[in-house]
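Issue 218. Parser rejects a valid record. Input:
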Amino acid sequence: CLIHSISLHHQTHYHPSTTRPSHCLCLSKNHHHTTMGLANSKQELNPEDHPAIWISDPSCLSDFTTTQFPTDQASKPVALKDSALWDEFAHKVNERVPLVNKHLGNLYIMYTTVVALCMAIGVTDIVPQFQLIIIPAAIVTIGGHAVIVDKNKGHDVEIAKIIESYQNRFVDHGIQIEYVTESTHFCKPRHKRAMRVVLFKPAVNTMNELT
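Output the parser choked on:
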């Protein structure tokens, strides 16, 4: 499992963890294991429990769905008193966040529809014809999934750039922003899911450190 802080200047080391939403309703004999996995994953990404906004959708389908970055004032970190800065920042980040996993859900809906239609018309009883339809559809779906996940890397970089561009203005309010991701690659171990979070840490006073 890969955890890294996306930055224009540095990249942290990778660490292993397990992930899955704590209130996931998927039926699985490993449900307890995956429930604990999400908690462990969140703890590793935010071990000091800083104010955070989790971009990942906390559901069983989070790897296939898009989400929005919250722009309301209620989501603003308590330490940030500048409402106008938060509004500008949140809307700017939200221009990019919904592009993550865009069209991925539709891709799997299309595949599921093809399978359902085949079952409805009885093609599943005719093995050669069924394979002729399903195999290409599966290849297209998996290939499309890989392409979209690859594009997500670019979106993650752009989100990090936006955050970096606001860094100095947030530091003026005593806040350092960090964008951290985990398991965002196409191939990942079983029971692990993509995680994306924006952390709001106390800014380090370098002048005090020097003294």
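Fixed in the parser; the record now loads. The helical segments are 31-45, 83-94, 104-120, 127-171, 206-210.
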